[in-house]
Amino acid sequence: MTQNIYDTAEFFEAYSQMARSVHGLDGAPEWPALRALIPPLQSRRVVDLGCGFGWFCRWAQAQGASEILGLDVSQNMLDRARGGTPASAAAGGIVYQRADLEQLQLPPAAYDLAYSSLTLHYIERLAELFATVHQALVPGGHFVFSAEHPIYTAPASPAFVQDASGRRIWPLNQYAVQGPRTTDWLAKGVIKQHRTLGAYLNLLIQTGFTIAHVQEWAPTQEQLAAQPALAEERDRPMMVLVAATR
């Protein structure tokens, strides 16, 4: 099961104070670039993988999506997304459900768009998830996601890989060494899954997706003028944005 760090009090309290938590999509500097990858949603069926506070679900609803399913492993996230709506009821046409994306099952050809924001770097069994998404999309359906860039996830842990005798053989912060990384982000012991950029893209291809766009996101000059603190995001990409079709 995915580590459910968002249901721990310390982490959730800190996460709730972040700009993207307070201001929603407008507080996420990568949102304009990500939004440009999303097809028209009028009368379309959408699934949000790792819906968090439900910001994208509500945006999709405003764009005219006919069905929206928001999935998250965190009950805290879902409670905030629902805003007091009973779990058994749709929140204005949006259905929120608790789900572990490591074990996700979706009906075939049920959605026109699968969307995910900054969630996939937590997923260990990504091949299985990509296969589930692929079969859940209609032919020509879209898969749009963002994830922490592998350059960002690679050095998260100072630990070493060991051989059978227990000898340290290389540091886990090497980019080419894929696997879990443990980092202290908002709380101690947050586990993320590091994989190379090529691993993400090749896995999409192997699953049967056609890659339409890849962006190693960096802030624009206009964003830098408005938020000088984003300058560090030009030193190395923090996020990768991907659009693919079935």
Q: What is the mean pLDDT?
A: 86
In the CATH hierarchy, what is the class? Alpha Beta
Q: How many domains is the backbone divided into?
A: 1
Residue stretches low in confidence (pLDDT < 50, at least 5 long) are none
CATH fold topology:
Rossmann fold
Biggest beta sheet attributes? 7 strands, mixed
CATH superfamily: Vaccinia Virus protein VP39
H-E order = HHHEHEHEEHEHEEEEHEHE
Q: What would you call the shape?
A: globular
Keywords:
246 residues; alpha/beta; Rossmann fold; seven-stranded mixed beta sheet; two-stranded antiparallel ribbon; 9 helices; 11 strands
In short:
By secondary structure, the chain is α/β, with parallel strands linked by helices. It is 26% helix and 27% strand.
Fold and architecture overview:
26% of the residues lie in helices and 27% in strands. It is an alpha/beta fold and 246 residues long. It has one domain: Vaccinia Virus protein VP39 (Rossmann fold). The chain has a seven-stranded mixed β-sheet with strand order 3-2-1-4-5-11-10, with helices on both faces. Strands 6-7 form a two-stranded antiparallel ribbon. Strand 4, helix 6 and strand 5 form a beta-alpha-beta unit.
Give the topology, please.
Layout: H1 9-16, H2 19-22, H3 31-35, E1 45-49, H4 55-62, E2 67-72, H5 75-82, E3 94-98, E4 111-117, H6 126-136, E5 137-148, H7 150-153, E6 160-162, E7 168-171, E8 179-183, E9 190-194, H8 197-207, E10 210-217, H9 221-226, E11 239-245
Parallel strand pairs: 1-2, 1-4, 2-3, 4-5
Antiparallel strand pairs: 5-11, 6-7, 8-9, 10-11
GO molecular function, one term: S-adenosylmethionine-dependent methyltransferase activity
Organism: Achromobacter spanius
Keywords: Methyltransferase, S-adenosyl-L-methionine, Transferase
